[in-house]
Automatic annotation (TrEMBL):
<keyword id="KW-0472">Membrane</keyword>
<feature type="transmembrane region" description="Helical">
    <location>
        <begin position="104"/>
        <end position="124"/>
    </location>
</feature>
<dbReference type="InterPro" id="IPR050879">
    <property type="entry name" value="Acyltransferase_3"/>
</dbReference>
<feature type="transmembrane region" description="Helical">
    <location>
        <begin position="207"/>
        <end position="235"/>
    </location>
</feature>
<feature type="transmembrane region" description="Helical">
    <location>
        <begin position="247"/>
        <end position="267"/>
    </location>
</feature>
<keyword id="KW-0812">Transmembrane</keyword>
<dbReference type="GO" id="GO:0016747">
    <property type="term" value="F:acyltransferase activity, transferring groups other than amino-acyl groups"/>
</dbReference>
<dbReference type="Pfam" id="PF01757">
    <property type="entry name" value="Acyl_transf_3"/>
</dbReference>
<feature type="transmembrane region" description="Helical">
    <location>
        <begin position="337"/>
        <end position="358"/>
    </location>
</feature>
<feature type="transmembrane region" description="Helical">
    <location>
        <begin position="173"/>
        <end position="195"/>
    </location>
</feature>
<feature type="domain" description="Acyltransferase 3">
    <location>
        <begin position="7"/>
        <end position="354"/>
    </location>
</feature>
<dbReference type="InterPro" id="IPR002656">
    <property type="entry name" value="Acyl_transf_3_dom"/>
</dbReference>
<feature type="transmembrane region" description="Helical">
    <location>
        <begin position="379"/>
        <end position="398"/>
    </location>
</feature>
<protein>
    <recommendedName>
        <fullName>Acyltransferase 3 domain-containing protein</fullName>
    </recommendedName>
</protein>
<feature type="transmembrane region" description="Helical">
    <location>
        <begin position="54"/>
        <end position="72"/>
    </location>
</feature>
<feature type="transmembrane region" description="Helical">
    <location>
        <begin position="12"/>
        <end position="34"/>
    </location>
</feature>
<keyword id="KW-1133">Transmembrane helix</keyword>
């Protein structure tokens, strides 16, 4: 397996993170692009067409996150199981399952604290008055007292993982599903460590059929279950083919899979009946899913899974995803996901609506109207600045915040395992030369 810092799966995760941000920018500024056309008789805009619409749509990117979760959390246990190292597989599952919660929860708590602090210092004041419905819905009041502010922080920190909602950052609603998806992986791996690979493939098939017919509410089956299972399936293929995976299929086939998958992943979020291609897809999926299923999540899953399989079997696609640019995008993908909504409600909103805020529009009665955004050029400049600041801060997060969270998780897990905590003995009065010779106890 390639080193983590040069792994194609991280590059894919980086693309998914970027797509989520672009999708939310679309929802905030040009939500009509989520439809394939304004109505069945109107010609579509360029970015409403298949393939082009992926640049402003982030729903399929969420499916990619779940696919990656299933892949990376199962690849180690599967490898040890196939090698007959059952004790090592059980130990790895136990350690990963315990640490996974901290790796997700601690950074999310920091991000929630950041958006809470901004809300309670009135940094979101402008969002209450903008003409963007999505940004305006993200407004949170400044709590009247310090006590109420801390209570609201505690509520947000807890409910992110209990009911799946965070009053300060609604985009965190998927995080409890990622944690649940990880536990699904660990449970499945624990149950199948001792079985032969063919039996595990059968287990994947049964789980896949179960989640396909689940289709309840937000289609948790299609959003979480199907993608997690497919991720485990691809991890199984990785351990089966090893380094020969990219030579299994003739070169055109993986490329064709990626192209077809990208088309499917472009299934529109809104009004699929407004274009013939998406209306046909809608009717097909309704005919093979349960009643009232969210067919969008099923197409997101199928499209993202097809792209993942195409990349898995393609040497060229892997080479692209391990390039420095995509390596960087993958390296900062989680903090980008955690912070982007906060930056949309602050940096982006401030830049776009500042001219209007300096001279607020009012009606005939003197009542303030919604702030109006600047020109198209102004918006493009604002978005460019937003992206730069977001990714710059995400890089700083990885450098400074992630190590602290990782150390806290390691300390907690070592305490739980009863392992000794390493300490460095230093003389109270020491110089540079003596300190270099001191070793940890």
């Amino acid at each position: 397996m390639a080193p983590r810092d040069a792994n194609w799966i991280d590059g894919l995760r980086g693309i998914a993170s970027f797509m989520v941000v672009s999708g939310h920018l679309c929802t905030a500024l040009v939500p009509w692009l989520h439809s394939p056309a304004a109505d069945p008789k109107t010609a579509p805009h360029l970015f409403q067409l298949p393939y082009f619409r992926l640049t402003v749509g982030g729903r399929s990117a969420v499916a990619i996150f779940f696919l990656v979760t299933g892949y990376v959390n199962s690849i180690g246990p599967i490898g040890r199981s196939r090698a007959g190292n059952h004790d090592g597989a059980f130990t790895g599952i136990a350690r990963s399952a315990l640490a996974r919660s901290g790796r997700l929860i601690l950074p999310t708590m920091v991000a929630t604290f950041l958006t809470w602090f901004l809300a309670n210092t009135n940094a979101y004041h402008m969002t209450k008055h903008v003409d963007s419905t999505w940004i305006r819905q993200g407004w949170h009041r400044q709590e009247p007292t310090l006590w109420e502010a801390f209570l609201s922080l505690f509520k947000a920190e807890v409910e992110t993982w209990t009911i799946g909602w965070n009053d300060y950052d609604g985009t965190q609603w998927t995080l409890h599903l990622f944690l649940g998806g990880s536990m699904l992986v660990y449970t499945t791996m624990f149950a199948t460590v001792l079985v032969k690979p063919k039996a595990r493939f059968l287990v994947y098939a049964v789980l896949y059929l179960y989640f396909w017919q689940l289709g309840e509410g937000l289609a948790i089956g299609a959003l979480k279950g199907l993608n997690i299972v497919m991720g485990m399936f691809v991890a199984e293929l990785h351990n089966h083919y090893k380094d020969s995976a990219t030579s299994v299929l003739p070169a055109p086939i993986p490329a064709l899979m990626i192209i077809v998958g990208m088309f499917i992943a472009g299934y529109p979020q809104d009004s699929p009946q407004n274009a013939r291609w998406s209306h046909v897809m809608q009717k097909i999926m309704h005919s093979i899913t349960v009643e009232n299923a969210d067919v969008r999540r099923y197409w997101d899953h199928i499209g993202a899974s097809t792209v993942l399989l195409g990349i898995f079997f393609s040497r060229n696609a892997r080479r692209v995803l391990t390039s420095p640019v995509f390596n960087f995008l993958g390296h900062v993908s989680f903090p980008v996901y955690l912070m982007h909504n906060t930056f949309i409600k602050t940096v982006l909103t401030w830049i776009i609506y500042l001219p209007s805020a300096m001279n607020p529009p009012k009606n005939e009665k003197g009542e303030q109207l919604d702030l109006q955004r600047g020109s198209t050029t102004h918006i493009f400049i604002a978005v460019a600045i937003f992206y730069y600041i977001l990714y710059r801060c995400a890089a700083l997060w990885v450098k400074h915040i992630d190590p602290i969270c990782a150390n806290l998780v390691n300390m907690a897990t070592k305490w739980a395992y009863g392992e000794p905590q390493p300490r460095e003995n230093r003389p109270i009065l020491g110089n540079a030369s003596t300190e270099k010779t001191v070793l940890p106890s």
